[in-house]
Each structure stands twice: as structure tokens, then as C-alpha cells.
Amino acid sequence: MIDKDILDGLSELDEADLKRIKLLVDNKLKIESDIKVSYRTKSIKCGKESCNSCPHGPYWYAEWTEDGKRKTKYLGKNLTDA
């Protein structure tokens, strides 16, 4: 059974935070199926001609290979928030 404090904490999270937690849980569960998720930062160019501060970031991404294809998922500006 899941601890009530954990459930209460999850109910207070927004959608972005819940997605980050889902990715981390999915990674933990997929260890048995040999799918390894790595985490890395990327700096991203916004493409706006008027931007004087490109690239932006760094932003955290999860990366893995699934069915022979490289997949990535944006996690947010701070991985520690996940």
C-alpha cells in the first residue's frame, strides 16, 4: 500500500511535475527489460531573429532507445525538481 503522505504530495503536483515523476518511475521499472534511460542537458536555440541570448538553457532531457529508435523527453530546467 502506498503511504498516505506520498499520495497527498502527488495530489499537489502540477502536470509537468507528474510527467517528470512518471519518466523516473518508468525508467526504474524498465531496468528489468534492458531499456536504459540517460539524462543530459541541452542548450536550445529559439530561432528568433531578435534574440540576443541564444542558446537558451541548459534544459534536462531523458534519452533512450525503443524499438530501434532514439527517443527523447523534455524534463525541465532543473532535474532536481523532478
Detailed description of the structure:
With 82 residues, this protein is α+β, with helices and mostly antiparallel strands. The chain has one domain (4-81). Helix content is 28%, strand content 32%. The protein has two helices and three strands, in the order ααβββ. It has helices at 4-11, 15-29; strands spanning 38-44, 56-66, 69-76. A three-stranded antiparallel sheet has the order 1-2-3. A hairpin with a 2-residue loop joins strand 2 (56-66) and strand 3. The longest helix is centred in the first third of the chain and has 15 residues, at 15-29. The two termini are 23 Å apart.
Main sheet record: 3 strands, antiparallel
Secondary structure tally, helices: 2
Q: From the helix content, strand content and strand pairing, which structural class follows?
A: alpha+beta
How far apart, in Å, are the first and last alpha carbons? 23 Å
Strand order of the largest sheet: 1-2-3
Would you summarize the structure shown here?
This protein is of the alpha+beta class and 82 residues long. The chain is built from 2 helices and 3 strands, in the order ααβββ.
List keywords for this structure.
82 residues; alpha+beta; three-stranded antiparallel beta sheet; 2 helices
